[in-house]
């Protein structure tokens, strides 16, 4: 993914993201050359295999217990997927989010590879409202499940406190581009525990009466390297799904004024 | 408070649980005055729906009095008497704005499971598993109603609970099934399944101008309830349905057909979800026998209305017959919010008295007995209501 500050200014709204086109070409190329399907590093393959096999067993155990049907199947499915990934060195999830380095491993890249995630959603509200909510960074912990706190500092700087797979991580970030009702881009301090950068883009789609399109795109280096990423994936923390859920909370809050929940409602003990 | 909880297969209990409280600003708390057991609750009862949790509070057909309001609900007041639709809708998303209420984007707190199965998630429902939001249901003394400014309808004091309670589900569901038939004056409408929803579909089809309604079932009591509404009946256990319908329509077929078999299951067939694992091998999950027969009996160019019975994959679906006869298909969960006011008006005008369908009344504390009776004796038992 190209950093937003390099080329987003020249891009027309609604134009397909060049990296999305690139990702499509990459995917096509990968399909053409099955030998090239390996996009998971060696150490991670071992990790995936072990975690995957364990999860499959756990999932099947849950299946046997009553009431754990979906939990069991999804866990087992995740396990089978990881085991497959470990065995073949191919990860559909990585392919989907555009991770392509087949040679990545802890030994060749001390920080692991960067993980790139991008997602778009439609929100039935005008862009100025969406931009204003997001620009007040202190709002974001409400929609981002893993962000505990964001302190706004001066000059577009902010301090982030985030729950990671191995405890809390913190970093300082800088807004690198800020175009009202259009785009906010940020970059974390390069020495941060979790180096990351990304942007959120707001586009009006009033022409077809569908409100606005919000696109979030970011990339980061997972703190525990690629095996950490494999564990995060195994535990349902696939970054793409996480982003999907964060964007859904944003949509619910902007459209309905609240995030739907059933936490805190009564239930019996049987 | 007292509430009916799901404790596993054929095991419901009446328990003391915490009172519900306002969680979000658009919530209301309703003190339930009447609630009903739906045929679809039997699928929960029989343990077919895999995302139920032990201790979940049942019930999606209920009404009562507002006792508490979140600070963003301005159209209701404490003390108002309301009927609550079983689908939960935010009223603000694109789908709600198109009046596609049961397809609301924002009411399900955990739509991931439904998204995995369907690509997208429909709206949440009260008391109907975690696939549909995991909200506590209304077979209780009190219930929390999310988005209360959008769903509940105030009802006048001169109408009894029993007259308006079925606005919560089965009357609108039967009505939408008939409305989807695009009935013209003189049409013949054939309805498979004469359970509670089928009964309301029969009466709604007449209201919408059908000349004749044919009800198909095998429970004598249900067929005679259909006859009381003016329907002609076919007992499929001793007649050939297709031949009879050809006979009755002089070889033309029914102008529209409604598949209300197991319709009480509102959008989920138990086997559909239960067979989710089997579906890994892409074996079929739903059993569309009545639907196949309905498609067969529908005239060329006619309409097939399916009030939301199916949850999974269909085996041997006669697409060739549907294509060859140029049929129109209409289906889905009821867009409840569209129908509450017009159907309340119909009840007030005396076009219909929904109490006809009630066969049994119990106290809330007798819920285990009521569930057992409804499950075991579908000949006698058509609709059960519970009074907290
Ligand atoms: Zn119902
Ligand atoms: Zn909605």
TrEMBL record, chain A:
<feature type="domain" description="Coenzyme Q-binding protein COQ10 START">
    <location>
        <begin position="123"/>
        <end position="247"/>
    </location>
</feature>
<protein>
    <submittedName>
        <fullName>SRPBCC family protein</fullName>
    </submittedName>
</protein>
<comment type="similarity">
    <text>Belongs to the ribosome association toxin RatA family.</text>
</comment>
<dbReference type="InterPro" id="IPR021309">
    <property type="entry name" value="YgaP-like_TM"/>
</dbReference>
<dbReference type="Pfam" id="PF03364">
    <property type="entry name" value="Polyketide_cyc"/>
</dbReference>
<dbReference type="InterPro" id="IPR023393">
    <property type="entry name" value="START-like_dom_sf"/>
</dbReference>
<feature type="region of interest" description="Disordered">
    <location>
        <begin position="1"/>
        <end position="34"/>
    </location>
</feature>
<feature type="domain" description="Inner membrane protein YgaP-like transmembrane">
    <location>
        <begin position="38"/>
        <end position="100"/>
    </location>
</feature>
<dbReference type="InterPro" id="IPR005031">
    <property type="entry name" value="COQ10_START"/>
</dbReference>
<dbReference type="InterPro" id="IPR047137">
    <property type="entry name" value="ORF3"/>
</dbReference>
<feature type="compositionally biased region" description="Basic and acidic residues">
    <location>
        <begin position="23"/>
        <end position="34"/>
    </location>
</feature>
<dbReference type="Pfam" id="PF11127">
    <property type="entry name" value="YgaP-like_TM"/>
</dbReference>
From TrEMBL, chain B:
<keyword id="KW-0862">Zinc</keyword>
<dbReference type="Pfam" id="PF00107">
    <property type="entry name" value="ADH_zinc_N"/>
</dbReference>
<dbReference type="Pfam" id="PF08240">
    <property type="entry name" value="ADH_N"/>
</dbReference>
<feature type="domain" description="Alcohol dehydrogenase-like C-terminal">
    <location>
        <begin position="196"/>
        <end position="309"/>
    </location>
</feature>
<dbReference type="InterPro" id="IPR036291">
    <property type="entry name" value="NAD(P)-bd_dom_sf"/>
</dbReference>
<dbReference type="GO" id="GO:0016491">
    <property type="term" value="F:oxidoreductase activity"/>
</dbReference>
<keyword id="KW-0560">Oxidoreductase</keyword>
<comment type="similarity">
    <text>Belongs to the zinc-containing alcohol dehydrogenase family.</text>
</comment>
<dbReference type="InterPro" id="IPR013149">
    <property type="entry name" value="ADH-like_C"/>
</dbReference>
<keyword id="KW-0479">Metal-binding</keyword>
<protein>
    <submittedName>
        <fullName>Zinc-dependent alcohol dehydrogenase</fullName>
        <ecNumber>1.1.1.-</ecNumber>
    </submittedName>
</protein>
<dbReference type="InterPro" id="IPR013154">
    <property type="entry name" value="ADH-like_N"/>
</dbReference>
<dbReference type="InterPro" id="IPR002328">
    <property type="entry name" value="ADH_Zn_CS"/>
</dbReference>
<dbReference type="InterPro" id="IPR011032">
    <property type="entry name" value="GroES-like_sf"/>
</dbReference>
<feature type="domain" description="Alcohol dehydrogenase-like N-terminal">
    <location>
        <begin position="26"/>
        <end position="152"/>
    </location>
</feature>
């Amino acid at each position: 993914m190209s950093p937003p500050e390099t080329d987003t200014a020249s891009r027309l709204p609604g134009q397909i993201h060049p990296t999305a086109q690139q990702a499509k070409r990459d995917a096509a190329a990968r399909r053409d050359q099955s030998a090239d399907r390996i996009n998971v590093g060696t150490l991670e393959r071992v990790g995936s295999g072990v975690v995957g096999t364990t999860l499959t067993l756990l999932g099947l155990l849950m299946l046997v217990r009553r009431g754990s049907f979906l939990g069991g199947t999804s866990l087992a499915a995740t396990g089978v997927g990881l085991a497959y990934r470990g065995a073949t060195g191919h990860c559909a999830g990585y392919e989907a989010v555009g991770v392509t380095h087949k040679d990545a491993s802890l030994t060749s890249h001390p920080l692991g590879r960067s993980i790139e995630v991008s997602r778009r959603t439609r929100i039935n509200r005008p862009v100025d409202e969406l931009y204003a909510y997001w620009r007040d960074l202190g709002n974001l912990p409400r929609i981002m499940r893993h962000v505990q706190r964001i302190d706004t500092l001066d000059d577009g700087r902010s301090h982030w406190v985030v729950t990671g797979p191995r405890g809390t991580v913190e970093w300082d970030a800088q807004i690198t581009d800020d175009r009202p009702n259009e785009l906010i881009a940020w970059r974390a301090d390069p020495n941060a525990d979790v180096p990351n950068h990304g942007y959120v883009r707001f586009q009006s789609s009033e022409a077809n009466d569908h409100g606005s399109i919000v696109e979030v795109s970011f990339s980061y280096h997972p703190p525990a390297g690629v095996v950490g990423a494999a564990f995060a994936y195994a535990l349902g923390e696939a970054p793409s799904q996480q982003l999907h859920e964060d964007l859904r909370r944003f949509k619910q809050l902007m459209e309905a004024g609240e995030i739907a929940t059933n936490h805190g409602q009564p239930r019996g003990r049987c | 408070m007292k509430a009916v909880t799901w404790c596993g297969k054929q095991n419901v209990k009446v328990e003391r649980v915490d009172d519900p409280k306002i969680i979000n600003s658009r919530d209301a708390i309703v003190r339930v005055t009447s609630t009903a057991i739906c045929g679809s609750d039997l699928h929960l009862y029989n343990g077919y729906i895999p995302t139920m949790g032990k201790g979940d509070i049942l019930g999606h057909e209920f009404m009562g009095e507002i006792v508490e309001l979140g600070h963003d609900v301005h159209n209701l007041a404490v003390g108002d008497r309301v009927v609550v639709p079983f689908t939960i809708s935010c009223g603000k998303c694109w789908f709600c704005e198109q009046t596609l209420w049961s397809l609301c984007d924002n009411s399900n707190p955990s739509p991931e499971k439904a998204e995995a199965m369907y690509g997208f998630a429909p709206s949440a429902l009260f008391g109907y598993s975690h696939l549909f939001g995991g909200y506590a249901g209304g077979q209780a003394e009190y219930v929390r109603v999310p988005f209360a400014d959008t769903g509940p309808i105030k009802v006048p004091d001169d109408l009894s609970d029993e007259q308006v309670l079925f606005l919560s589900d089965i009357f609108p569901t039967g009505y939408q099934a008939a409305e989807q038939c695009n009935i013209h004056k003189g049409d013949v409408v054939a309805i498979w399944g004469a359970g509670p929803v089928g009964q309301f579909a029969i009466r709604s089809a007449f209201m919408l101008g059908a000349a004749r309604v044919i009800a198909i079932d095998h429970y004598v009591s249900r067929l005679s309830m259909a006859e009381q509404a003016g329907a002609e009946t076919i007992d499929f256990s001793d007649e050939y349905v297709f031949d009879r319908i050809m006979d009755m329509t002089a070889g033309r077929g029914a102008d529209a057909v409604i598949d209300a078999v197991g319709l009480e299951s509102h959008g989920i067939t138990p086997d559909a979800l239960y067979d989710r694992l089997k579906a890994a091998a892409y074996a079929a999950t739903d059993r569309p026998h009545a639907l196949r027969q309905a498609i067969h009996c529908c005239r060329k160019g006619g309409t097939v209305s399916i009030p939301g019975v199916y949850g999974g994959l269909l085996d041997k679906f006669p697409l060739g017959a549907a294509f060859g006869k140029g049929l129109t298909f209409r289906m889905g969960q009821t867009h409840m919010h569209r129908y509450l006011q017009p159907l309340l008006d119909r009840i007030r005008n005396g076009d219909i008295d929904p109490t006809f369908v009630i066969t049994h009344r119990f106290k809330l504390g007798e819920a285990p007995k009521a569930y057992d009776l409804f499950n075991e004796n579908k000949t006698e038992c058509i609709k059960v209501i519970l009074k907290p």
